[in-house]
Amino acid sequence: MEPRPFHRGPGRVILLNGASSSGKSTLAKALQRTLGEPFLHVSSDQFVATGMLPDRREESGPFNWWSQMRPRFFAGFHRCLPALAEAGNDLIVEHVIEFPAWRDELARLLAHLDVFLVGVHCDLDELDRRERARGDRRMGEGRSHVEENLMHTFGPYDLEVDTTAGVSATLADSVLTAWRNRTVPRAMRPGPAAG
């Protein structure tokens, strides 16, 4: 007989928002290692890495990535987050919130949950350097998130960190200290404060 899972109520969410190559994954892993409780590390890159997306891409029609597949993919990704948390999972989510509408959508979907929103900043030249070193990103992608999408202007954060010099244990500890001392209301909530 399969044991019944212990239901502990909705999980808590630490949401890291930053440009591509800004150090979100490194910070998420550092937080996950440091926390004394199990937190799931969730990102859209992990979904993509499973091979779930079709290889076929076309300029128009249903296989057009930008106008057809991508909007539905991210709408689904956003809806996965409350489902995971509502099942009692604590989450560290890394995301590139590229549009004010995405932030608004996340604020609505996560409104009933304990969400701590962290802005992850990194010097633009360092973003470029990391993209060159990684070799798996479009050059200028991270820079465009900051300069063109203006991702850090869509609303306030509960905490902002700079990962230009990397993700040290001290930086990870500062995030956890701020998270443990969080107060309400917080930055990620529906309405005018959500962008």
From TrEMBL:
Gene3D superfamilies: P-loop containing nucleotide triphosphate hydrolases. InterPro entries: CPT, P-loop_NTPase. It holds the Pfam family CPT. It comes from the Bacteria. This is AAA family ATPase. It comes from Actinomadura alba. The lineage of its organism: Bacteria, Bacillati, Actinomycetota, Actinomycetes, Streptosporangiales.
